Amino acid sequence: MDRYYIPALGRIYERFGGCVLPMLRIVLGAILVPHGCQKLFGWFGGMGFEGFTALFDKLGYKPATLWVALVALTEVVGGLMLILGLFTRFAAAAVAIFMVNAILFTWQFGFFWSKGGWEYPLLLLAVSMVFLVRGGGELSIDAKMSKEL
Fold it and tell me: What pTM does this model have?
């Protein structure tokens, strides 16, 4: 039996307890997809593939075309896979690797996101690690395929 700090909320915790991890998985994917679309298509105020290729080249990522494609596809395809709960652990692993690189890149700017720092990629890394370890959960395509929970 669970013991809660606020016992009156116990029924709410129990009722919605099964929804929070799928919600987190979907939100992570929904955050990633638009960032990838900025890089691939220039949507949502992004610079598009050519603009990001020039930026990555200037930052020293060679060959820049490869790195932009890899990052953008990790965000779009990995994000969609997370939203659906399809091959969740693979998608989460790709996002985790990407976020480690993002932390290393933003380390020089300090911790705070508002200064270009690494707190945002750290949060995304932590969330992706949840799904790398736990999988997509019961409300996922993975579970429906009886492959992983």
Answer: 0.90
